[in-house]
Design a protein that fits this description.
The two termini are 23 Å apart. The protein is 72% helix and 0% strand. By secondary structure, the chain is mainly alpha-helical. It contains nine helices and no strands. α3 runs antiparallel to α6, α3 packs parallel to α7 and α7 packs antiparallel against α8.
Length: 174
């Protein structure tokens, strides 16, 4: 959290609000993954319970840890959708795209089943934020920055240095 990008954008506060929903999306993905893996290995859990009946702590821990798995998958999917929509509605579109890409990469890391289950919830989250995204894109098209961005082909290469030293050319706040 103490990267140069965060230090630079700290004054604007939109970046932090776009990233703050990342752990919530990770929580939803992780719970869906646990639900999927619990459904595929229910027989082994039953045998483990019988083996550890003597140790009450392990039995209670097993019951508590599987209590969250009884919740339906769609509940965690809705958490993912709402968190992604809130990230896009936070006001920093680029960081919200990074959040979406990181979450999708994490989902791919968890396996194909998790991707197939969570992908519709990713789309639903984008659809929830779609009206605001369309309005923001329309405002961008009509702004002066869009002309400068299109004619100058983006950010000049000399500003690549600000990735490592954000205040190299001066701080925009001061």
């Amino acid at each position: 959290a103490s990267t140069s990008v965060m230090a630079y954008w700290m004054a604007y506060a939109t970046l932090g609000w776009a990233i703050v929903f990342l752990p919530l999306v990770f929580f939803g993905i992780e719970q869906i993954y646990k639900s999927i893996s619990a459904k595929t290995s229910t027989s082994s859990k039953k045998t483990k319970r019988f083996l550890y009946l003597q140790n009450m702590y392990v039995l209670i821990h097993d019951i508590v840890s599987t209590a969250s798995l009884r919740r339906p998958i769609w509940l965690y999917g809705c958490i993912i959708s709402i968190a992604l929509a809130c990230s896009f509605l936070a006001g920093h579109f680029q960081m919200s795209l990074y959040v979406l890409l990181v979450c999708f990469a994490y989902t791919c890391f968890k396996g194909k089943k998790t991707v197939f289950i969570t992908f519709p919830f990713f789309i639903l989250g984008l659809l929830l934020a779609f009206p605001q995204i369309i309005l923001a894109f329309d405002a961008f098209i009509h702004s002066n920055r869009s002309e400068n961005y299109i004619t100058n082909a983006g950010i000049p290469l000399q500003y690549l240095l600000t990735v490592f030293a954000p205040d190299f050319f001066g701080n925009p706040v001061t």
